[in-house]
Amino acid sequence: MPPTRTPTRPIWEDRFAKPTFGALRAGIEPSHADLFDLARTRLAALPDTVEDLVWHGIPWRWTLVYRQSQDATGAAMAYLVPKPDRPLVALPVPHEVLSIVRLKKSSRLIREGLSQAKVVAGVYWPQWELTSKTLLDEIISLIEHRLVSTTQSA
Fold it and tell me: Which residues, in sequence order, are CB contacts of 125 under 8 Å at separation 6+?
């Protein structure tokens, strides 16, 4: 009987071996890699931000989580999901923040993402496939708006 090869799991899906950032990036399709790098740079550049790589199970698997280091709750402000075929950005958006965001000034993609988001305990969970720099700019603006409204209410 010939020896059988056990299929190797893609690094993004292997729960038991924490990958490096470089290994995760190498698994992303070349057409999406530059936008993924830009998203990672822009998210990490937000004020007082800490980046961490965390296993989130299916469907996100290994995910980059962005938190504010001064936030006592440790709540995430953004998730960058390095799906090999189409990276995603997801945001927890509290209802209070959504009520003050000017949706009419946002692009159709942002409005649709927010309107179709799942709601869990008063928090909207929109997610977008990273398809363009313009979309990334709008997502970053939404995060910045959330950060400003959070510091004003504190």
Answer: 90, 91, 92, 93, 117, 118, 119
Q: Residue 26 corresponds to which tokens in the numbers above?
A: 């190498």
- Round to whole Å and give the CA distance between 27 and 11: 8
In Å, the largest CA–CA distance within the chain is 69
pLDDT tens digits along 22-34: 999 999 999 999 9
Query: 150, exposed or middle or buried, with CB in 10 Å at 0-12, 13-18, 19+?
Result: middle
- Backbone φ and ψ for 101, nearest 5 degrees, come out as -75, 135
pTM: 0.87
Is 87 in contact with 76 (CB distance < 8 Å)? no
User: Is 11-153 assigned to CATH 3.90.1150?
Assistant: yes
Give residue limits of the domains in the chain.
11-153
Neighbours of 154 (CB within 10 A): 5
